[in-house]
Fold this sequence. Notes:
Layout: E1 9-13, H1 25-33, E2 36-39, H2 42-51, E3 58-60, H3 66-78, E4 82-86, H4 99-108, E5 111-115, H5 120-128, E6 136-139, E7 155-159, H6 164-175, E8 179-184, E9 192-197, H7 198-204, E10 214-218, H8 223-226, H9 229-241, H10 246-257, H11 261-268
Parallel strand pairs: 1-4, 1-5, 2-3, 2-4, 6-7
Antiparallel strand pairs: 7-10, 8-9, 8-10
Helix pairs in contact: 3-4, 6-7, 9-10, 10-11
The chain binds S-adenosylmethionine (SAM).
S-adenosylmethionine binds near residues 95, 119 and 159.
Amino acid sequence: MSEPKSKGVLYLVATPIGNLQDITFRAISVLQEADWILAEDTRVTGKLLAKYEITTKMIPYHKFNLKRQSKKVLSLLASGNKIALVSDAGTPIVSDPGAELVNLAVDLGCAVVPIPGACAFLSAFVASGFESGGFYFVGFCSKFENRLLEIGVPLIFYEAPHRIISFLKKLLDFFGNRKVVIARELTKLHESFYRGNLADFVSNSEDMMIKGEFVVIVDGCKKIESYDDSFILRELQAEIDKGRSHKKAITLVCEKFDLKKNKVYSLSLQIK
Ligand code: SAM
């Protein structure tokens, strides 16, 4: 671990995703004590600063002025300034600009300090009811690559409000009728969750009030769906042909393909 060479500090400060109370004491004091706040949208961040009586000056920093502003920010960091990066909502860098600035600040020898807090996908995931054995964060997804079909843990997507219905139709076409949890307007007045499957959601979507911001979590690939009965039977037969007992063959096939024992057992009854 190396010590920072420059006195400048880049803070990555999480801000609320809707409810202005979702901010930490530490985030407030870092924003107050910073020399500058880099804000994705100064009007949005201005409301937050006004609520907490934070008087630090803002510099606009968004995807359209990244390159130009990064130079300015680097020279501020080089001369020892403390800079706090915030996004419109939630944790900066998560589907938001700033990763490049982090790398530039590291190269300059500055400390880069995350100030944790709200993040839309994590709030959605913890309330989703999906097992916590892992998840795959996709974020915004313009192209569905086939490798996504094989992922065995829930997949988490962001989508802009005006595209949500067509996006859910695309998810249904691509993944088939998987289980889905849709978290809407998290931490806000109209926070709600849809828990069901993609086909039901899409067929009822015309009657629903589809407004606001969404996180969509699609269940991962269930391996049992990937192997048809004849495939499992062949695998069982192959183990038995090697001289293994039915019981042992069932155990081995379950382990190898991550299958449920009762399904493989009932198939094994077909083998004499
Ligand atoms: N950096 C943010 C974070 O930490 O989650 C995400 C920023 S990304 C540009 C914006 C997307 O996050 C939205 O299109 C939506 O998918 C999701 N999002 C943000 N706030 C949300 C909220 N209150 N409820 C549901 N989804 C939200």
